[in-house]
Amino acid sequence: MGILDEFEKGLERVVNGAFAKTFKSGLQPLEVTAALRRELDTRAAVVSRDRILAPNRFVVRLSPSDYERMTGLGPALVDEFTQLVQQHATAQRYSFAGGIDIRLERDERLSAGVVRIDSENVKGEVVWAPVLDIAGKRYPLRKGRTVIGRGSDADITLDDTGTSRKHVEILWDGTRGQVNDLGSTNGSKLNGQPVTKAVLQPDSVIEVGRTRIVFRVLAQAAELTRPDGTTR
């Protein structure tokens, strides 16, 4: 399977269901992904026999209408872009000076359907951040236990009558995630299979009731240092 096929497979997770209506016309997420891929390939530079350095900070400039539609999906879409950039870099053996940082910006000068990307190499620490993506919202995971269910006493409350008050818990020990079903009435699934207790791999999909939960571990940028010594 080619890398662009992988992009398409990944983005299907974001632009299905309720999101599909948002992208019936106008600029598509796949077009942004293709532009990011081209930017990586164009700007990648051979610095030694075993190292090809690619930019790790991207500003994706969009027309006002496209910006509203893209940002309307919340952080889940940027998470997808970040992960797919990471996948492409791995496939092409590119290296980064720091964590990947992607920002969407509104540009009044651009027409609908046009995307422009500015990129740069920025030094910085990579912070591996575990998050849960639920219905377009991002929930950072803290170390310890996070309970998910429809009860008001759950750490993440779901508006889903198919879930129990305390349906599942996600455990994070700082390096590894785990999902445990808390004796729910309707049970839980992990990647389409019934689950009671299991270790979570990045991009695992947990299903409870009608709700889909994606567990991600993102390579995010910490405080970044530009080549001129300034930070942001």
Radius of gyration, Cα only, in angstroms? 19 Å
Biggest β-sheet description = 6 strands, antiparallel
By helix and strand content, what is the structural category?
A: alpha+beta
Tally of alpha and pi helices: 4
Q: How do the SSEs run, as a string of H and E?
A: HHEEEHHEEEEEEEEEEEEEE
Q: In what range is the share of β-strand residues?
A: 35-45%
Helix fraction, binned, reads 10-25%
Catalogue the unreliable spans.
14-21, 224-232
Count of β-strands = 17
Shape from CA axes?
A: globular
Distance between the ends: 38 Å
| Average pLDDT taken over every residue | 84
- Strand order in the largest sheet: 8-7-17-16-13-14
Overall description:
This protein has helices spanning 3-12, 29-43, 64-71, 75-92; strands spanning 45-48, 51-53, 57-62, 94-95, 101-106, 115-120, 123-134, 137-140, 144-149, 156-157, 168-172, 177-181, 188-190, 193-195, 197-200, 204-208, 211-225. Mean pLDDT is 84; it is low at 14-21 and 224-232. A hairpin with a 2-residue loop joins strand 16 and strand 17. By secondary structure, it is an alpha+beta fold. Residues 146-195 form the FHA domain.
